[in-house]
Specification:
By secondary structure, this protein is α+β, with helices and mostly antiparallel strands. It has helices at 8-22, 52-55, 103-117, 140-148, 161-164, 234-241, 254-264, 271-291, 303-321, 329-340, 346-349, 351-382, 398-406, 410-419, 426-443, 451-454, 464-484, 512-527, 539-544; strands spanning 26-27, 65-73, 89-97, 125-130, 156-159, 165-166, 173-184, 201-214, 220-233, 490-495, 500-505, 532-538, 558-564, 574-577, 592-601, 604-611. It has 3 domains: 8-248, BirA Bifunctional Protein, domain 2 (2-Layer Sandwich), CATH 3.30.930.10; 269-318 and 332-454, no CATH class; 464-611, Threonyl-trna Synthetase, Chain A, domain 2 (Threonyl-tRNA Synthetase, Chain A, domain 2, 2-Layer Sandwich), CATH 3.30.980. The chain is 39% helix and 20% strand. Strand 8 (201-214) and strand 9 (220-233) form a beta hairpin. Helix 8 runs antiparallel to helix 9 (303-321), helix 8 packs across helix 10 and helix 10 (329-340) packs antiparallel against helix 12 (351-382). The N and C termini lie far apart (65 Å). It binds serine. Serine binds at residues 46-48, 94, 166, 206, 208, 229-231.
């Protein structure tokens, strides 16, 4: 490796150019962080996530070879953040074959990119393949491709499903064996034999061979087509390519960490302080991207808003640990906006919201924090004489109430209880967490299918109900524009098998008459039995045809445009850019009813509605 630093933008460019220009892939625009029409997950967790319908066999307007940069959030390991490697937000570079090339070509391209484009030496690379089990055979095919490229058997490990199988992202959906690529980050020469348990071998890329669909019954059936889904971790590659020890030492974070030290007025940091720095910068980077997303949510006590609140509040707590008291979230967010906005232009467009929400949450938290600590201390003192009896002495819902009333995040309650000796071991900690979760679940908005059910449907439900509600969403969108005006634009859509939820910009509460009018228009179009069809075209063509929807896509990228109501007899009722799927005729919806119209956040209204009742 030479001394020239590889920048994040270089890496994005090199990846996309390699797959687009050299290997015939079409570059598509990464999706929103907040998944549309997929109630089964809170955030987009991988590049493949928005592509599920196409991995299942639906034709993609851009063809069979795709590549992109996808912003992702994974919250499973949120408590691990603070070490050298865990991140909540990250960027995934990906390339896909939708029933086009398979193992051999995918691996050859990966090899070429690693060794030629990035110039990594085979001496520092190792690979793993699926060992095989009763669901699928050992992946000798992939191993042979690696061997033929010059990889020695010592550097190929065969590992079980736990390691070398990817997906489904929900409970059901596309999945398959994968082959993973590792880079040696230890001092000196890499060991001859690859040991996947040695943390100095860092996984940087993953080629998944999606050829199965996991069913609700837990069986693996062959998919209509054999797909490839690859994901390269941008932060990891940037780290190893620049010889850094962690992503926090790269250009992605160094300015923010410098600013933290400036604000905290210190220059040397021990491990404890560094951990706080990593938590602050990881969490505020994720928060910046959530607030800067085109389907942004704001801090709240449910769903994505709750994750966002936890991220910001945990950052603030660690801010205090390093000696920063007030108004810093906004400042650090400003650095992320500045450094990321060339590629993620939405951050600049939404910077006002990012800054004001960060500042408001910090202010709210500051106010309640002091009160809350006093209440918690008082309660602990009250039961001090019964301390030996354990945590049972607190009211069952006490821990949750500390959150509901004082906005105390669960980890903070635990920390306070630990510091004062109430929590002595992992068992005590589990007790508090379980009590908290119990009441937290009850509190979650029941109308949104419930927290448990949320994860039970599998990724991207394309059931008949969901498809009907999706079509109803288009009719509703058009009807709202007819009744309220052309300023109405979609700001979010979330569909479960039970109902649709549609967020749109509109400054005031709708009157009962307006609601009735919208309902009537949609019902009329259902009665009119409008045919539903789609065409693929460029964004410019879609604009020309007056299609509604998000015109956010790469230059020249083809999109699907769904039209409702065009045939010999009729003119178009609605035309909208959308991936689908939809019903064939609006009569399938039978009827439409609005259950609720309410405020979602400033200037955004929310409608919940059902069909077929
Ligand atoms: N879906 C796979 C992953 O997340 C490859 O993109 O690693």
């Amino acid at each position: 490796m030479n001394n020239q630093k590889l920048t994040a933008q270089d890496l994005r460019n090199r990846y996309i150019n390699f797959f687009a220009k050299k290997h015939g892939h079409r570059e598509i625009k990464g999706a929103s962080l907040i998944p549309e029409n997929d109630p089964t997950v809170l955030f987009t967790t991988a590049g493949m996530h928005p592509l599920v319908p196409f991995l299942m066999g639906a034709p993609h307007a851009e063809g069979k070879r795709l590549t992109d940069v996808q912003k992702c959030i994974r919250t499973d390991d949120i408590d691990e953040v603070g070490d050298m490697c865990h991140l909540t937000f990250f960027e995934m570079l990906g390339n896909w074959s939708l029933g086009d090339y398979f193992k051999e070509e995918a691996i050859k391209m990966s090899f070429e990119f690693l060794t030629k484009e990035l110039g990594l030496s085979l001496k520092n690379l190792a690979f793993s393949c699926f060992a095989g089990d009763s669901d699928a055979p050992k992946d000798e095919e992939s191993a042979n491709v690696w061997r033929n490229l010059g990889v020695s058997d010592d550097r190929i490990a065969f590992l079980p499903k736990k390691n070398n199988w990817w997906g489904p992202a929900g409970l059901t959906g596309p999945c398959g064996p994968d082959t993973e690529m590792f880079f040696w980050t230890g001092e000196g020469e890499a060991p001859k034999k690859f040991d996947s348990d040695d943390a100095k071998w860092v996984e940087i890329w993953n080629d998944v061979f999606m050829q199965y669909n996991k069913t609700a019954e837990g069986t693996y059936e062959p998919l209509k087509q054999q797909n490839v889904d690859t994901g390269m971790g941008l932060e990891r590659v940037l780290t190893v390519m620049n010889g850094a020890k962690s992503p926090f030492e790269t250009e992605l974070f160094d300015e923010v960490i410098k600013e933290i030290r400036l604000l905290g007025n210190y220059s040397e940091a021990n491990e404890e302080i560094q951990k706080s720095e990593r938590i602050i910068s990881d969490h505020l980077r994720a928060g910046t991207f959530i607030l800067g997303d085109r389907f942004a949510v704001t801090p709240s006590n449910v769903d994505q808003g709750y994750v966002l609140r936890r991220l910001i509040r945990r950052a603030i707590r660690h801010g205090r640990k390093v000696g920063i008291e007030v108004d810093f979230c906004r400042k650090l967010a400003g650095i992320f906006v500045k450094n990321y906005c060339d590629f993620y232009t939405e951050l600049l467009e939404n910077q006002e919201r990012i800054f004001s929400e960060m500042a408001m949450e910090e202010e709210r938290f500051g106010k309640t924090l002091n009160n809350g600590i006093a209440v918690l201390k008082k309660e602990m003192t009250k039961f001090e004489s019964q301390k030996s009896e354990g945590l049972n002495v607190f009211a069952e819902n006490f821990f949750f109430e500390m959150f509901a009333t004082y906005g105390f995040p669960i980890e903070m309650i635990i920390e306070e209880l630990e510091n004062s000796g109430w929590i002595k071991d992992a068992k005590d900690k589990d007790f508090v967490t379980a009590n908290f979760d119990k009441f937290f679940k009850e509190h979650q908005d029941l109308s949104r299918a419930g927290a448990d059910k949320k994860f039970a449907g599998g990724l991207a439900d394309h059931s008949e109900e969901v498809t009907k509600l999706h079509t109803a969403t288009h009719l509703l969108h058009k009807a709202l524009r007819t009744v309220l005006g052309e300023h109405v634009e979609q700001r979010g859509s979330n569909i479960t098998a039970e109902r649709l939820r549609f967020d749109f910009c509109h400054g005031e509460k709708m009157t009962p008459e307006q609601i009735k009018k919208v309902e009537d228009i949609v019902n009329e179009q259902i009665k009119n039995a409008l045919p539903v069809s789609y065409e693929e075209m460029t964004v410019d063509e879609a604009k020309e045809k007056g299609a509604m929807g998000l015109f956010e896509s790469k230059y020249g990228e083809k999109v699907k445009v769904y039209t409702m109501g065009e045939d010999e007899k009729r003119t178009v009722f609605s035309r909208e850019i959308c991936g689908g799927p939809h019903v064939n005729n609006t009569s399938e919806l039978k009827s439409f009813k609005i259950l609720k119209e309410e405020s979602s956040s400033g200037g955004i209204r929310r409608i919940k509605a059902v069909v077929g009742v």
